[in-house]
Amino acid sequence: MATKVELPSRKKGKHQKQIWVPKRKTQETFVLAYPFFFNNRLMGDIVYFFEKEKLKLKGMRLMHVNEKFIENHFKNVGGEPQGEHPRLSWVSYITNRPVIAMIWEGHDAVRRVHEKTSTQEESLFWFDDG
């Protein structure tokens, strides 16, 4: 999609030139911050992390999730994080503590968030483009 833009003319009596400028595709993506961030008061760091990437926070909610939600989330993002604690399953860890669910918006947001979160060796927050 594109939008029509009129360029001002420097000469008197000249018609303005019209050009078509492509619109930048704005996307939304879901980010789930695991209990570690809430328990260690690091939510400001998370917000700063994404705002630094010129993304806009559309919504954020502190919530508890059930097993069905988190299992579906892991299925959508490709499995549980690496480096699982031997005495504690990720599903149990996440369902027994509060998580922060966020929607971030911006140009090419899905790819940019994925690049930033998947570079973490043991990412404590994951995203989903759905």
Defining key terms:
single chain, 130 residues, alpha+beta, four-stranded antiparallel beta sheet, two-stranded antiparallel sheet, 5 helices, 6 strands, elongated, transferase, nucleoside diphosphate kinase activity, NDK-like_dom, nucleoside-diphosphate kinase, EC 2.7.4.6
Gist of the model:
With 130 residues, the protein is an alpha+beta fold. It is 32% helix and 32% strand.
SSE layout:
Blueprint: E1 2-7, E2 17-22, E3 26-33, H1 35-39, H2 43-51, E4 56-63, H3 67-77, H4 90-95, E5 99-107, H5 109-118, E6 125-128
Antiparallel strand pairs: 1-2, 3-5, 3-6, 4-5
Family: Belongs to the NDK family.
InterPro entries: NDK-like_dom, NDK-like_dom_sf, Nucleoside_diP_kinase
GO molecular function, one term: nucleoside diphosphate kinase activity
Explained architecture:
The structure is a single chain. This protein is an alpha+beta fold and 130 residues long. Helices cover 32% and strands 32% of the residues. It has 5 helices and 6 strands; from the N terminus they run E-E-E-H-H-E-H-H-E-H-E. The model is unreliable at 126-130 (pLDDT under 50).
